[in-house]
Amino acid sequence: MRFAPFVLVAALLLAAAVRDGVDRWIVETDLPNLLTDTSVQVVDREGKLLRAYTVEDGLWRMGSPLAAVDDSYIDMLVAYEDRRFWLHRGVDPWAVMRAVYQAVWNGEVVSGGSTLTMQVARLLEDSGTGAWQGKLRQVRLALALERQLSKEEILTLYLLHAPYGGNLEGVRAATLAWFGKEPLRLTPAQSALLVALPQNPNDRRPDRHPNEATEARERVLQRAVVAGVLSDDAATAALMTPVPNQRREFPSIAPHMADRVVAARPEAVEHHVTLERDLQLSLEQLAAKALRGLEDRVSIAMVVADHHSGEILASVGSAGFSSGDHRQGFVDMTLAKRSPGSTLKPLVYGLSFDQGLVHPETLIADAPVRFGTYAPQNFDGRFRGELRVREALAQSLNLPVVLLTDEIGPANLMATMRKAGTVPEVPGGVAGLAVALGGVGLSLEELVQLYAVIPQGGLAQELHWQPEEITQERQRVISRSAAWHLGDILSGISPPKGASRNGLAFKTGTSYGHRDTWAIGFDGQHVAGVWIGRPDGTPVPGAFGAEVAAPVLFEVFQRIAPELTPLGPPPPETLIVSTGQLPEPLRKFRGRNALFEKPEDALAVAFPPDGATLEGGNSEVILKVKNGALPFTVLTNGAPVVQQSRMREMVVPLTGKGSATVTVIDAKGASDRVTFWVN
């Protein structure tokens, strides 16, 4: 008996030594890397997933914070896998004893006694479950993890690494692939399947082994009822729900923009952009619909932005992203430099308003003109004569805008485009008068940014996809009054056939050879653009911006909002008068060479216009003469054909097809002549 105190002391010392040894064993545990690579994600302005990328080993590894996972799923998981998870320190002795007892009683392993923490240890090191060495390592690592991490952090690791069949890891990847939804709100049937899958993910894949998946889910539901985390009625309803029969594709919304964003910041795991997911999806569907009936190599691009903030709300680079697509859908046509056709004309008029050259009510000539060897023509080859500047812009006539470009200077036009934040590219590097008609390279995104100037009262507005606030000072591109006049004119253009006259301000364009068709428009809140053409630059015969791109633009605005936001009122300095009320110099555009022109009452051939083309192989032409003293003598190609005529409108014979020069001489010897072509 006298040795009893010594035995007790020895036992206590031995227990302390064992405790210290175990403690040291746990402390000295080499922890695996807890910062595992996860799928890079691009999310919209509200955090909704647009696109995700697999990690290097081809896995979709997507976890989720506990706050973003349905509580009922967590409760069901703990009830089924480790009901004392919140109490033990990594190893549950009661579960271990139960597993040993069941193994002895049944002669085989019935339950493993692994805790969720031990399962996390196994997943982190990808260790097996059978060999005792592996199980011992899991115990050691589980005990170490419990000392380093909170229960919530351990559970979050499980939600990141648990396998759910195929190349799916993590609860978020599972819910997206099997249910097409985020894990925040799950049904009991969905939660039970997610609990069952990680135990045997490939043999319980619901798309390949639906019976096994259903049976495993049923066992989870039964235990959830016993644990009191699910009612009998809810479990019965869940049992009636079929398991998913196919795996869903991961979202690939705004793929071009997503690639662009990831390339800009390759080190980031989650990228936030200004896009609106629902609008983006809607426009991607519209893009596919818009190309029906068009040549199968034609593509489309669309950009929508809020011109107040400069945020890009939608960006569609093509109708389909597949790299094998004959439409070259992998090419982001929102960034491709193309000829903008007539879409730059409003900028020319805006600069002309600011320089005092014209006013919207100024009369301007739509007549043949030549600048050295450059003789521009209207798209249809016709001439309208004298008309108001407002009408010239609305009808997108070429000759008036070239006259104005000659006055303001192509270099000034280029500088203004750069001031608006665009980077125009000119073939050969030297800008000429053809810039006004599309002889320059701009992207769709740049054109939309350029048009944002107009509803922004003439101030440059940089478009951006990053949600950061732009703080740099904005440059003035045109005056407030010039911008208002442009919006007023463009909102009065007739809409495409079938579209409602809703007052959308818009302009269309078609590049040389029908290679590009455009429609750019804006209201009081949004600015948008549509491009349709072939990415390889091949012409699309018969395609016009007004007929192909404009109807799509109007539908874009219908999908942005049911009603347009009105444009603002004119600024106080805006001059709103008729042609007759304008100051004398603004009533009619004359240009810098007006001093060298003939007086208005001088003899002139009014028809046909100089440089015109007459169709039909006519053997004669109606000649109209204004001013001059009667009688008239008329020569065709130098030969007299009419003499002593007292008519100002007469029929003049022609010598045949080809070039014809008609000269008129009046009684005082004054003369005028025109040269035209007869087909």
TrEMBL record:
Residues 301-512 form the Penicillin-binding protein transpeptidase domain. It comes from the Bacteria. Keywords: Carboxypeptidase, Glycosyltransferase, Hydrolase, Multifunctional enzyme, Protease, Transferase. InterPro entries: Beta-lactam/transpept-like (IPR012338), Glyco_trans_51 (IPR001264), Glycosyltr_51/Transpeptidase (IPR050396), Lysozyme-like_dom_sf (IPR023346), PBP_1c (IPR011815), PBP_C (IPR009647), PBP_transglycosylase (IPR036950), PCN-bd_Tpept (IPR001460). It catalyses: [GlcNAc-(1->4)-Mur2Ac(oyl-L-Ala-gamma-D-Glu-L-Lys-D-Ala-D-Ala)](n)-di-trans,octa-cis-undecaprenyl diphosphate + beta-D-GlcNAc-(1->4)-Mur2Ac(oyl-L-Ala-gamma-D-Glu-L-Lys-D-Ala-D-Ala)-di-trans,octa-cis-undecaprenyl diphosphate = [GlcNAc-(1->4)-Mur2Ac(oyl-L-Ala-gamma-D-Glu-L-Lys-D-Ala-D-Ala)](n+1)-di-trans,octa-cis-undecaprenyl diphosphate + di-trans,octa-cis-undecaprenyl diphosphate + H(+). Gene3D superfamilies: Biosynthetic peptidoglycan transglycosylase-like (1.10.3810.10), DD-peptidase/beta-lactamase superfamily (3.40.710.10). It is an enzyme of class 2 (transferase). SUPFAM superfamilies: beta-lactamase/transpeptidase-like, Lysozyme-like. PANTHER family: BINDING PROTEIN TRANSPEPTIDASE, PUTATIVE-RELATED, PENICILLIN-BINDING PROTEIN 1C. NCBIfam families: PBP_1c (TIGR02073). In the C-terminal section; belongs to the transpeptidase family. This is peptidoglycan glycosyltransferase. It comes from Shimia sagamensis.
